[in-house]
Amino acid sequence: MTEYIGLDVSMKETAISIRRAGRRIWRGKCASDPAAIAELIRTRAPNAERLVFETGPLSVWFYHALRAEGLPAICVDARHAKAALDMAANKTDANDADGLAHLAEVGFFREVRVKAFDSMLSRTLVAARTKLMRTTLDVANQIRGLMKTFGLIVSCSMGASLRCIFAPSWPTTPAFRG
């Protein structure tokens, strides 16, 4: 018989629910590590048909790691799953995992396309570079604004060191003479 698994992923622990033939056969928690989860699933659900979890910060990692372990991982739209999970009487991680397992069993979910790991790496590097460039510009503008208080008019030349920027006007400023 085939099993359907729901994962409610969080940073430290992941709630897991396994269903077979319309009934929950196991429910528990595991460390949020795809290798540990894969080992647990191979033990508790050797005939897994679908393994469903919601989109979130860890979903790209989980998707690719679980697929690499040979498990039928499916990432579903969190907003779509929320509508079904809100019907539960008590909102707990265990109940959410059970609801996701039920969605996997009946096939009522909207699968999302998870981007490749390489494209996510490129996207992360571009985002980090953009953030660093904006921060550098903000700090340079802040320093230029602060120096105007002391009569130092600094040109806006990005890339130059502060000593090169301030050197021409530093000795002529009375407030900074030794």
TrEMBL record:
Q: Which InterPro entries match?
A: Transp_IS110-like_N (IPR002525), Transpos_IS110 (IPR047650)
Report the Pfam families cross-referenced here: DEDD_Tnp_IS110 (PF01548)
GO BP terms: namely: DNA transposition
Show the GO MF annotations. Answer: DNA binding; transposase activity
- Coiled-coil region list: none
Domain Transposase IS110-like N-terminal, by residue range, is 5-149
PANTHER family found in the cross-reference section: PUTATIVE TRANSPOSASE FOR IS117-RELATED, TRANSPOSASE FOR INSERTION SEQUENCE ELEMENT IS1111A
Q: Kindly provide the name given to this protein in its UniProt entry.
A: Transposase family protein
